[in-house]
Write a structure and sequence with these properties.
The chain is 78% helix and 0% strand. It has 289 residues and is mainly α. Helix 6 runs antiparallel to helix 7.
Length: 289
């Protein structure tokens, strides 16, 4: 097969996966919204005309019951779209979800990789605060962070799906195309970042994706990065609920912020070296792709 054909197939595969990902999200969000709005309207808990104003921000903000209904719909949309996308990836053969995903791990390596994710997470949070990056989804994230099903979707379901999709399926395809780890890791991380669209998330997710991509490549197991991603999102939910965004910004500024950034970068390098040395050579690891 010629190089042009290989590139074409790779691009089509990645775009196809992302298209299905978006379509399922939109489809289940719309379905959940329509069903919950109709049910709540029929039950009398929201005004009958609410169905005509679900995309009117002012109207939604003026009616807490309608807003609560829409937050529940978004959380349900995440739940069903995640399950559907995981099934699609599995049965389409992009990444096989097996019971081996939950086995074949070293607790020592898992502990080190989780510390690596945490230290990288702190360093990146400080880093992105140095730039005037807009957060267009802070309101949506805040609403979901105060909803039980929304917390489950943000902290567990989203990391699970995103790691299966971006590391398992997309990075796996890129590895087979490039035949080398770093081009595959960086490309998958950039796709992971760009797909968030939100400016602050594009930068953070791209850099964080490189860390996760390397851990996945080095361990040969998706479980390590799922645990790390769950940790990252859980901390994001906790800080949102506690309202500690102002404190984060104050810590990231001045000499304290620079010193903290350097310390956590050096700690991340140390932990990455420690993890690398604790594992057998890559060729001896049995990956899950």
């Amino acid at each position: 097969m010629s190089l042009i054909n290989k590139v074409f197939r790779l691009v089509v595969t990645i775009i196809g996966l992302l298209a299905v990902y978006y379509v399922l999200q939109l489809m289940f969000l719309r379905l959940a919204t329509d069903l919950l709005i109709k049910y709540a309207s029929h039950a009398g808990s929201i005004p009958p005309e609410a169905a005509d104003f679900t995309y009117n921000v002012q109207y939604v903000n003026d009616h807490p019951a309608v807003k609560s209904c829409l937050v529940n719909a978004r959380a349900l949309g995440i739940l069903f779209s995640t399950m559907s996308m995981l099934l699609f990836i599995h049965f389409a053969g992009y990444y096989r979800l097996r019971r081996g995903l939950w086995r074949s791990i070293s607790l020592k390596s898992l502990f080190i990789s989780t510390l690596l994710v945490y230290s990288s997470m702190v360093a990146l949070n400080i880093f992105v605060q140095w730039f005037p990056l807009q957060d267009n989804l802070d309101t949506v994230f805040d609403d979901l962070s105060h909803n039980i099903l929304g917390v489950f979707g943000l902290a567990v379901l989203a990391p699970l799906l995103e790691e299966v999709l971006f590391r398992g399926a997309i990075q796996g395809c890129l590895m087979r195309f490039y035949g080398r780890p770093w081009p595959a890791i960086i490309t998958a991380a950039l796709v992971f970042g760009i797909i968030h669209w939100n400016p602050v998330q594009v930068v953070y997710a791209s850099l964080f994706g490189i860390v996760l991509g390397w851990i996945y490549y080095r361990t040969g197991s998706l479980l390590y990065v799922i645990v790390g991603h769950v940790l990252n999102n859980t901390f994001a939910v906790i800080t949102t609920v506690l309202g500690s965004g102002a404190e984060e910004k104050s810590v990231s500024g001045g000499s304290v912020g620079i010193a903290s950034f350097v310390i956590f970068v050096l700690l991340s390098i140390y932990l990455a070296t420690k993890l690398n040395n604790s594992l057998p050579p890559v060729e001896d690891l049995k990956g899950e792709n």
